[in-house]
Each structure stands twice: as structure tokens, then as C-alpha cells.
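Quick one, C-alpha cells below. Sequence please?
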């Protein structure tokens, strides 16, 4: 068939699924799990978050790797390099990289401190660190929703 590129299709599918895992996970954690867990006492609530975030962050790291490989694969393998990409791809890349940097800050600073506080059962410090994590996730969620909107509509901008 003319115009069929299975590598491009696979890269786009991987890219979209990795974004769904990351952004969807943040949406679930922020809009569903957070309010449901708020009724728990500090110890069980923070232990729950520790377990949930440990699993989710492993998925986020995998998603980031897949987003980078599939995204740059499409830039160079399909679009022909940075000079040939549209504004919407540049916006997706820029915001996506900002999101990744924010995630890695979250992972190596407040998350590390949160896990240490939970391990020593310092619930007050754990709650402070969880609040920092929540703030970063909130910003990343908003950015992620913008990226999804840009990625799904950008080719139609003209």
C-alpha cells in the first residue's frame, strides 16, 4: 500500500500509550485516589501512597524511556529532523522535556525524603513531602493534559 509505514504506526502507538500511562496515572492519583485516601489516618494513608507511588513511578520511568525513543525516532525517522517538524511537535517536545525534568526532581528529592520519612514513621514529615509531590504532580498533570491536546490536534493547526 502506498503511504503505509508500519514503523511510524508502531512508534506513534507506543508514544500514545506511554503518554496515556503517565498522564492517565497522574489524573487517577490526583482526582480519584487522593480524595479517597484523605479519610485514612496518617500512617495508613502515607503507607498506601508509598506503595502506590513506588509502583506508579516505575511505570513513569518506563513511559519516559518509551516517549523519548519513540518521539525522537519519529522526529528523525519520519519527519526528517528538527528542521522539518511543526510547531505542535516542538511544543510537545519542550513541554514533555519540562515534565520529565520535573518528574526526576520529584523522584530524586521529595520522593526520596518521603520514603525515608515513612520508613521511620515520621508521619508529619511524610505528609509535608507528599504535599510537595502532589504540587509537582498537579503541575505535571496540567502540562500533560496540554501536551495531549497539542498532540491530538496539532497536525490540524494549518
Amino acid at each position: 500500500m502506498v503511504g503505509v509505514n508500519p514503523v511510524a504506526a508502531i512508534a506513534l502507538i507506543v508514544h500514545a500509550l506511554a503518554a496515556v500511562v503517565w498522564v492517565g496515572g497522574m489524573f487517577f492519583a490526583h482526582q480519584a485516589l487522593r480524595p479517597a485516601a484523605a479519610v485514612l489516618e496518617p500512617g495508613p494513608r502515607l503507607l498506601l501512597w508509598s506503595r502506590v507511588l513506588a509502583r506508579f513511578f516505575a511505570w513513569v520511568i518506563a513511559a519516559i524511556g518509551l516517549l523519548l525513543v519513540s518521539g525522537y525516532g519519529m522526529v528523525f525517522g519520519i519527519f526528517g529532523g528538527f528542521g522539518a517538524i511543526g510547531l505542535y511537535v516542538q511544543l510537545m517536545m519542550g513541554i514533555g522535556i519540562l515534565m520529565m525534568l520535573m518528574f526526576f526532581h520529584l523522584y530524586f528529592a521529595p520522593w526520596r525524603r518521603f520514603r525515608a520519612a515513612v520508613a521511620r514513621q515520621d508521619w508529619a514529615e511524610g505528609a509535608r513531602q507528599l504535599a510537595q509531590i502532589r504540587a509537582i504532580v498537579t503541575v505535571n498533570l496540567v502540562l500533560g493534559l496540554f501536551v495531549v491536546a497539542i498532540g491530538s490536534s496539532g497536525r490540524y493547526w494549518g
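Helices lie at 6-37, 42-77, 87-108, 110-119, 123-153. The radius of gyration is 18 Å.
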